Amino acid sequence: MKKLRILVVTMDYPPPMGGIQTFTYNLEKGLKKLGHEVKVLNFDGRNINLLKKLKPHDLFYTPATIHSHFSVMKMLRSPQPIMRLRNFFYNNLVYRESKLAIYEFKPDIVHLTKPDLYSSIYGSDIPFIVSCHSEELIDVYPVRYSLQKALLIHCVSNFAKDKVLKIVPERAKDINVVYNAIDLEYWKKHRKNHKNNWIITICRLIKRKNVDSVIKAFSLLPVHFRDRYEYLIIGDGPERQHLESLAKELNVQHNISFLGQVNDKKKAKLLASSKLFVMCPTPYNNENEGFGITYIESQAAGVPVLGSHNGGVPEAVGNGGLLVKNELNPQEIATSIKRLLSDQLFYDNLVKIIKKRIGRFHSLEQVNSIVSMYQKILQK
């Protein structure tokens, strides 16, 4: 097999470690393991200072931003003019740095980890593939440009595929669904037979993750049940203060621990030691859960999960857990938690199912599938 030179362009690179960051990291690591030469062009403002990267000419139009989407009047009249202007500068920066990287690295193929990154390949004749997740899939010029021009489109779930088809229905034959995956060997090392009486949630603390409904559900559990279990919340975000106040208001603060951001090793240790992973996301501002990598990580650690029907969650959970019908109903979440932790036969059966299904989510298999897409493109 010919070894390829692959330029990966991303706005999601660890740290922090979320679903798309995990995808990008595993893609880079897997491609290198297969012997390919990989360059990652990172535009993630959470771990690099984009302001320092800006040049004076990034404040002016480039070929990538000469479009009505970026008209001055349209940007200034938008509900968030500062955000729109920032995106204008950002796209000019991405265009400039990507053009230079393509010239110097001379890739065989470019892989965009999100369609928003259209300016990185604008005007280039280098073949490219784009990965699609969920919340970025809205019908606007940057996204539409990538979806129309990419030779193949990678979706992390059938839910993401359906969203893509609403924007570019003519591309149906060019979409490949390859689920997000993880390093199963890493997670197998952390599996534990003995589980602590912990219920755990790992996510960014934002509205669509719906952690407040889980806290309310925890408060509805019988007192003897609540006293037996501790609820661990790993992650940080704008909702943290509200969630901590809610726990106090419901008088369950002594049974809930907000642990903030933790490193990968500690996250794996805490997750593998827990009895149940709970995350019941809900739609918010056109944002949905594209897949949910933490459901897969939980199952790889031998931990059953409780999720919702939002977005690609059912595809991630499969038959390795339960899904609530109404994620905004704390009583339904509480009933599901109680069932999972009270019915030992049901719980043990889920653990057996998890061991059988988790093999399909090996990151190396995911990378091999994506490499097959590269080869298909290059053979055209």
Could you outline the blueprint of secondary structure elements for this entry?
Layout lengths: L4 E6 L8 H15 L3 E6 L7 H4 L18 H6 L3 H25 L3 E4 L15 E5 L8 H9 L2 E4 L2 H10 L7 E3 L6 H7 L7 E5 L8 H10 L2 H6 L1 E5 L5 H10 L6 E5 L3 H9 L3 E3 L14 H8 L4 E4 L4 H5 L3 E4 L5 H13 L1 H14 L5 H16 L2
Parallel strand pairs: 1-2, 1-3, 3-4, 4-5, 5-6, 7-8, 7-10, 8-9, 10-11, 11-12
Task: Fill in the CATH topology of the largest domain.
Answer: Rossmann fold
| Distance between the first and last residues' Cα | 16 Å
Principal-axes shape call: globular
Strand order of the largest sheet: 2-1-3-4-5-6
Helix coverage percent:
40-55%
CATH first level of the largest domain: Alpha Beta
Derived structural class:
alpha/beta
- Domain count, please report it: 2
Q: Count up the helices.
A: 16
The CATH level-2 architecture of the largest domain is identified as 3-Layer(aba) Sandwich
Radius of gyration equals 22 Å
Return the string of H and E elements: EHEHHHEEHEHEHEHHEHEHEHEHEHHH
* Sheet of most strands: 6 strands, parallel
Give average pLDDT, whole number. Answer: 93
Question: What is the tally of beta strands?
Answer: 12
Strand portion: 5-15%
Please, what is the CATH homologous superfamily of the largest domain?
Glycogen Phosphorylase B
Low-confidence sequence ranges: none
